[in-house]
């Protein structure tokens, strides 16, 4: 009798085990179950021309112009987790940052939808689908791709870094360079932060995921809006804010000096209320290097550590992770779309879980 | 015995019937089952600056610039139908045209995903997320919204048309106006048609869904690429192509004269190989009107009918539907996002079915 019971239990065990395996294998190809998806504009301002609108001979007179809003595309999966992820691109980029990778794999948009997070992807004001700018601009097609190849640490043009987590075929490079789009008008930090804050006002509590140039604007968004419950920042590039009177010296690099900026002590303290994690990739020189594309990141990583120490000194919870130090090698400026982006996403998932943000 | 059998069958019948009802009611709220989704750039060109790239002091010298591609976001539902729908925005617009409606309902993107069509939404070169333009441009924020309100036939600013299929709250109007984004550089018909054709080369056979300004470019795309198996065109605004020597006279309107353009007889004949349907909405004057916003559409509807007759004369299959004539009243220039857009989608579904394109 007992023997039979044991045989029976083992059988159950086998079934469960094999099912688990099948799940693991199928996972990447399972359909995305989207409970809701859509898009909207948020924030922004309205210009008005004096005079009276003449419908027969329309001029600007008496007409309005809405601009400087952010554009957001969102997807909410079934069985959604509590906090949505708001993903904010970096310099010269737009929503594509988080979508299909240059070599055609799934980016953070799909990866975190599969992990049941609502995903909101933002085009900041005057960028991509949020192109209606309240300021005039002239845009020149200026060849710049070889420089981005270096600055984004894919390699030293035309050489790829050894072991870089980036596919080396020309189709990938073509998609990579076409993932950029110009700013329509000057980049206005306040305009961008206001729009990001308006988004958090609309959707409520969530986690902000920033990249590069949006890193600094992310700190300001969290200061402005308490609905930002945590920040995951990939390679923040500038805008490290310190309390007035406590700014570190500029950090020299062959890409130029990196300066910190200041906020009031009162505002700075707000950054101690939420968990923040910062990730940097590989191929960042340890000492001053004439490779200005890479050397700028040495300065930024150094500044990020000073900033971590400053926030934590006041009781904050900031972690800086230099990926090679924990065994993830070859990451570029875009770890979330690199060849090992599943591992990069796993690190983020573990942190969100540890901070009870999932 | 027989009685019991009959009772049993009736019972089955009842169950099936009630299930069908529940399905019908739940449908709008069922999750979208997405087998695959992503984005990519397609088409475009590459500029190269002479000289040698200097990584230390980077200038344009020796660098490249990729631009004039289209950007595409696609979703393929489970149990997908044979032909994907490629949706192409109109003047001043971008992918938003097909996404969430200004009043927050589902647009054609979701509606046709629910009907199991793969949906590819395109931003044409130099627009929205495809902003990397190979030509320079200066963009001025020019107040223009009251004029668009009239031209898009929402009403005669500030009055809405009686019975217009457009929500009258200010939040809707705000989203509506923020759904526009400027062109970055001149609108280049050939550049746009080349990119659209490159998309059909990549994805294979499909159905093109155009709006307004993309209408004319849609005919040219079908002439260029045989993978366009049918066209659904909402309110095509210009670019009606006729065989050389067979152009109709320009049609006068208070918005200016509408002229046809010409293609070779050989190219024109290609338009007779696919089914094409054209829809126009309501509030288009029947005779010359001083309301130039609306009167332009009288000329375009008239030109569309001349074009239909020309294509059909050579054995084509073009249908022009003036929605009020079949009982759909109050539609604006954007029937696919109007309040009755489900009915508008039903008409499209019926046509696709009739033409064996579903």
Q: Low-confidence runs of chain A (pLDDT<50, min 5 residues)?
A: 1-27
CATH fold descriptor of chain A: Rossmann fold
Estimated radius of gyration of chain A: 23 Å
> Structural class given helices, strands, pairing of chain A?
alpha/beta
Shape of chain A: globular
Main sheet of chain A?
A: 8 strands, mixed
The arrangement of helices and strands of chain A along the chain is HEEEEEHEEHEEHHEHEEEHEHEH
How many extended strands of chain A?
Answer: 15
- Which strand order do you get reading across the main beta sheet of chain A? 1-4-6-5-10-11-14-15
Protein name (chains A, B): Alpha/beta hydrolase
Organism (chains A, B): Epilithonimonas lactis
GO molecular function (chains A, B): hydrolase activity
Keywords (chains A, B): Hydrolase
Description:
The structure is a homodimer of 358-residue chains. Chain A has one domain: Rossmann fold, CATH 3.40.50.1820. Helices cover 32% and strands 21% of the residues of chain A. In chain A, α3 packs across α8. The radius of gyration of chain A is 23 Å and the shape is globular. The longest helix of chain A is centred in the first third of the chain and has 25 residues, at 2-26. With 358 residues, the first copy, chain A, is of the alpha/beta class. Chain A is built from 9 helices and 15 strands. At the A-B interface, β1, β3, β7, α3 and α4 of A face β1, β3, β7, α3 and α4 of B. β1 (32-42) of chain A pairs antiparallel with β1 of chain B, so a sheet runs across the interface. Chains A, B: This is Alpha/beta hydrolase. Chains A, B: Keywords: Hydrolase. Chains A, B: InterPro entries: AB_hydrolase_fold, Carboxylesterase_BioH. Chains A, B: GO terms for molecular function: hydrolase activity.
